[in-house]
Design goal:
By secondary structure, the chain is α/β, with parallel strands linked by helices. It contains 16 helices and 13 strands. Strand 8 and strand 9 form a beta hairpin.
């Protein structure tokens, strides 16, 4: 199975999940609250901040030709209006390290975490955030734009609406019965592509308001992964557009897009209206805001099935991953084809992967997912690359370090990296 010249075969990470000690971010504050919903704090994470050269070399030696990573806004602008030159130089070194190893750097400007000061000013429901994000994007473009070809403004820009829907469903289950809440916790968590801990969030609600008020000046801080209002959803799109314009004004050569969390929505007889409504919310209503983008980052992990009463659990006996997702790598090609019906720009698979302790299942997942991508290319779809999530086992948000998505294992005590067979397997598909 060969891919065309210039096709990206890569892996992805997010700054907060791998770098460590992201002390100026909203997540860092939330992780250290007395009644945190996080199972553990991120701490040193994978110490990628100091070990990036080793990690990029391992990626390159395995044959991969691209690396998607995020810049940490909270490092670059730790206080409102104060940009840290040493941090932008750090990311310049990361980019140059990629180039030295023949690896294309694909940079994400915002991957879930925000500066704590931004959240104190209203966060992702405040109109002022659009201008703050534009200013940050312009600073990055001015400093690093000459060394970049691809910039993803916002990771999973639709995550807030997905969380709002799941939070609502979870609250209903909790109200119906404590038993239902306990049995439904994992089911609810398995419907969203970010590590959430709804059961613990419910337990901690009475403490959260007070501790949030102390940390952020408000009992309900609007972080990027807070359940989002419809107005906040559009605000994220306006922030994306502002950032895209800022980057393009300074660096017209850079190809700019964002990424969306997309499920393969499948309808059984009678479930068609539910699937159609879900696709409208998950993807189609964003089209006016992304139609001028150079590419769309497609992020997919599994499918969602709908019946006459709405969303259904995974089929009886289906293989489930550590994240409670159905093992269904075929979903990726289905989503790419569905997106292509409405979006005419390039497509890049910016995330696709599996949390499992059995690396042979990861290899099987990658094989099937890439076969789907290859079939899309054969049918003329403009797919430009595939990034596996994740390069290494890392901090999976509220779930801590228990979810193993990585192509490399990381020893929590020594930070030693051990490439898994899946790393070389993925690399074997690069040109």
């Amino acid at each position: 199975m060969a891919f065309p010249k210039g096709f990206f075969i890569g892996a992805a990470t997010a700054a907060h999940q791998v770098e460590g000690n992201n002390v100026h971010s909203d997540y860092w504050l939330q992780e250290h609250m007395p009644h945190s919903s996080f199972t553990e704090p991120s701490g040193d994470a994978c110490d990628h901040y100091h070990r990036y050269a080793e990690d990029i070399e391992l990626l390159s030696k395995a044959g991969l030709n691209a690396y998607r990573f995020s810049l940490e806004w909270a490092r670059i602008e730790p206080e409102e209006g104060r940009f840290d030159e040493s941090e932008i130089e750090h990311y310049r070194r990361v980019i140059r390290c990629c180039r030295e190893h023949g690896v294309e750097p694909v940079v994400t400007l915002h991957h879930f975490t925000s500066p704590a000061w931004l959240i104190r000013k209203g966060g992702w429901e405040a109109e002022s955030t659009v201008e703050y994000f534009r200013r940050y994007a312009a600073y990055v473009a001015q400093k690093l734009g000459g060394e970049l070809t691809y910039v993803c403004t916002i990771n999973e820009a639709n995550m807030g609406l997905q969380l709002a829907a799941i939070s609502k469903r979870y609250m209903l289950m909790a109200e119906q019965a404590k038993k239902a809440a306990a049995s439904g916790a994992k089911q609810a968590e398995g419907k969203v592509q970010v590590g959430m801990n709804f059961e613990k969030m419910m337990e901690n609600m009475k403490f959260a308001a007070m501790e949030n008020a102390q940390a952020f000046g408000t009992p309900q801080p609007q972080t990027f992964v807070s359940a989002r209002t419809l107005a906040g959803d559009i605000l994220v799109m306006l922030a994306h557009q502002a950032a895209r314009e800022a980057v393009k004004a300074l660096c017209p050569h850079i190809r700019v897009g964002l990424s969306l969390s997309l499920h393969d929505l499948q309808a059984q007889p009678g479930g068609e209206a539910f699937a159609e409504a879900a696709w409208e919310e998950e993807f189609r209503h964003y089209l006016p805001y992304i139609q001028d983008d150079d590419f769309l980052g497609v992020q997919n992990y599994t499918r969602t099935i709908y019946g006459p009463q709405g969303q259904l659990p995974a089929p009886q006996g289906a293989e489930l991953t550590q994240m409670e997702y159905e093992f269904y790598p075929q979903a990726l090609s289905h989503v790419l084809r569905k997106v292509r019906e409405d979006f005419s720009g390039d497509l890049i698979v910016t995330e696709n992967g599996i949390a499992t302790a059995d690396d042979s299942r990861r290899v099987a997942f990658i094989q099937e997912a890439l076969a789907g991508v290859r079939s899309c290319l054969d049918d003329g779809l403009p797919v430009r690359g595939y990034f596996y999530w994740s390069l290494m086992d890392n901090f999976e948000w509220q779930k801590g370090f228990s979810m193993t998505f990585g192509l490399m294992a990381v020893d929590r005590a020594t930070q030693a990296r051990t490439p898994k067979p899946s790393l070389a397997f993925l690399g074997s598909f690069a040109e």
